[in-house]
Design brief:
This protein is an all-alpha fold. Helices cover 82% and strands 0% of the residues.
Length: 191
């Protein structure tokens, strides 16, 4: 039963997840953490971190890890948990595959028409909204700490966030270097 639920859930996310992997993160979190309770919020945060560090699209990586963790948390291990990864990944990719096959010929023919351009103009704000929702959902106490519980961790996290934002946005420092600097700063704070 969990495999069918995984397939339906990730198929819907793949069908309605515009904006790429980061746009899908808020949908994935809502479905896996809030609606189905397959994962805890902390597990989802860890999955996002792992998905960003591993090669490949973050949406597909997240689906793979969420599928595995959901089946594992349901009490299945080994090959059955791996099947959960495969089901979630396949379900997430399937709508895009079907839609691309169906519209590829029509898109080339009609891509410069006014209705198609209007659709894309309407999708742009939705994509920005999904990316903003993903960002805001990850700005939680598990990632930044809480000023009431641990003010030191909270303010250091906020300072690292601000420094990374300024470094990448205005100083044009390579994001990979900024990730390395922030990781080094985090390691220094452990000691």
């Amino acid at each position: 039963m969990i495999y069918l639920s995984l397939f339906i859930t990730f198929f819907e996310i793949g069908l309605f997840g515009f904006g790429g992997g980061y746009g899908m993160l808020s949908l994935i979190q809502t479905e896996t953490v809030v609606h189905h309770h397959w994962l805890s919020s902390a597990e989802f945060t860890n999955i996002v971190a792992i998905s960003q560090m591993t090669p490949g699209p973050i949406g597909i990586n997240s689906a793979t890890y969420c599928g595995y963790t959901a089946v594992h948390n349901a009490g299945y291990n080994g090959a059955l948990a791996m099947l959960g990864s495969a089901v979630a990944t396949f379900a997430l990719v399937l709508p895009s595959l079907i839609l691309m096959i169906l519209i590829s010929k029509m898109f080339v023919k009609y891509m410069n028409t006014a209705p198609v351009q209007s659709v894309f103009m309407g999708l742009r704000p939705a994509v920005v909204g999904l990316l903003a929702a993903a960002t805001l959902l990850l700005c939680n106490a598990e990632n930044f700490g809480s000023p009431m519980v641990n003010p030191w961790q909270f303010w250091i996290s906020m300072a690292l966030f601000a420094a990374t934002f300024v470094g990448t946005k205005w100083m044009k420092i390579n994001p990979i270097k900024m990730i390395c600097f922030a990781a080094y700063a985090g390691l220094m704070l452990l000691y």
